[in-house]
What does this fold into?
Amino acid sequence: MFLIDVTQVCPLENRKLELTFADGVHAVVDMNHVITSYTGIFAALTDDDYFRQVRVASELGTVVWPNGADICPDVLYSFASGKPIIINGERMLN
It folds into this structure.
């Protein structure tokens, strides 16, 4: 686990987010790779205008949308940095 907060977000075209993390990592993350199914709470994110309403919730250390949808900051950091999430010696992502 990284425990590194998202500090800035800028929505881009085609469901991409430009992210900055507390340790200085800066990257563009394609949310189509992060969210594999836009159903349930994530269904609203298929609307481009709604997707652009993303913001950083500093109390959570990650990005959120008005309906409460959020993404684990460790998942975002893994995609942004290329570093896998490893829990109990097992690779979880990337």
Observations:
- The mean pLDDT is 94.
- Helices lie at 31-34, 48-51, 73-81.
